[in-house]
Amino acid sequence: MTGPEQLASQKPVTSAVRKSIAEAARAALRDPYSVRDAEISWIMGREPHTYVCVKANSKNGFGGYVGRNGYTVFLNNGRPINVTQNNAWCNEPAIKYERFTELENLKNL
């Protein structure tokens, strides 16, 4: 898909996708309870292979916040299968983002 086609394919992210990404992040992050300033993009791509961009600030292994990083989360039938960090595409101004409270609320578990 071209960039304009990817932007045209944007659709709101479902609660099931949000939940599955938050669960995966809890298992993968060094300190998942420290996540703040999290946003998730709308879903882009074609089923069953879609993706979202996630931006968040979390602590590193030394206990310090690293600043907001961007992650591309690749999905297969709505389930996360791979993640890449700092993909420049996630900074595209036309990508629609919304607050990702499920990721920020890991600290409340």
Outline:
The protein has 109 residues and is an alpha+beta fold. It has helices at 3-8, 15-28, 101-104, and strands at 36-41, 44-46, 49-57, 69-76, 79-85, 97-99.
Give an account of the 3D structure.
- With 109 residues, this protein is α+β, with helices and mostly antiparallel strands.
- The chain has one domain (3-108).
- The chain has helices at residues 3-8, 15-28, 101-104; strands spanning 36-41, 44-46, 49-57, 69-76, 79-85, 97-99.
- Strands 1, 2, 3, 4, 5 and 6 form a 6-stranded antiparallel β-sheet that branches.
- A hairpin with a 2-residue loop joins strand 2 (44-46) and strand 3.
- It is globular and about 40 Å long.
- It starts with a helix and ends in a 5-residue tail after the last helix.
- The model has no long low-confidence stretch (mean pLDDT 91).
* Average pLDDT score: 91
- The unreliable regions are none
The proportion of residues in beta strands is 25-35%
Global structural class: alpha+beta
Helix content: 10-25%
* Number of E-type strands: 6
Report the order of strands and helices: HHEEEEEEH
Q: Per the principal axes of the C-alpha atoms, what is the gross shape?
A: globular
What's the helix and strand layout?
Elements: H1 3-8, H2 15-28, E1 36-41, E2 44-46, E3 49-57, E4 69-76, E5 79-85, E6 97-99, H3 101-104
Antiparallel strand pairs: 1-3, 1-6, 2-3, 3-4, 4-5
